[in-house]
Amino acid sequence: MTMGDETPVTSLIFPVLIRPILSQLEKQDISASQTLRSALTKAEASYPGITYDLVVGIMKKGDVAVNMNESILRLQGGVSDSDVVEYRLSRSEDAFQELNKKSASLKRILSRIPDEITDRKTFLETIKEIASAIKKLLDAVNEISGFIPGSTGKQALEQRKREFVKFSKRFSNTLKEYFKEGHANAVFISALYLIHQTNMIIATVKSKCE
Questions:
Q1: Which stretches of the chain score pLDDT less than 70?
Q2: Cβ distance 32 to 25 under 8 Å?
């Protein structure tokens, strides 16, 4: 599965939907929750997107109609740090903590889109916030670059940054089309791509520095 061909919701189902459910289950039965978490984590690592297939399968069985892109985007706003541990840096230096903050901020603002997209004035203000958050995230990535050892690691981060910029421009174009055509789902998908790209930046930094 390549994220350029599939919708990004497949990579976000596990951290955004499944893990928070398991965290809730922990309060009732910690052993069952940990067993399920371990099994699903292994399954998702071996077969990326399997939890997405599972959720979609359950919804089809129950004849439930849900816009998965809209739902996952909205749910992103309530995800705790512990549920997205693979997309959070543990190093204590200011540059790493700043990147954590900027990535979390961008994802939180993007998660508001489903609730605000129908209110033009509010949505236009949110778009300005997103543009500012994107710039701040890129600045934070630049600050991190000096901590990446070796030219290969630096190149990997630079490539991630280029991908992020590409999807940022795509998001901007999708917004222009939305104001002409009114297709909200395209905006939801584009926002999810941005969240995925943000996660991939963090994952790349983690793999090179931690």
A1: 1-6
A2: yes
- Which of these, 5, 2, 21, lies nearest to 13 by C-alpha position? 21
Q: State the pLDDT at residue 6.
A: 54
Say what the pTM is. 0.89
CA distances from 150 to 14, 29, 143, 157 (A): 32, 45, 16, 11
Write down the pLDDT at residue 5.
40
Check: CB of residue 76 under 8 Å from CB of residue 17.
Answer: no
Which of 122, 127, 82 has the alpha carbon at shortest distance from 104? Answer: 82
Q: Report how far residue 55's alpha carbon sits from residue 174's, in angstroms, rounded to the nearest whole number.
A: 27
Counting Cβ atoms within 10 Å, is residue 99 exposed (0-12), middle (13-18) or buried (19+)?
buried
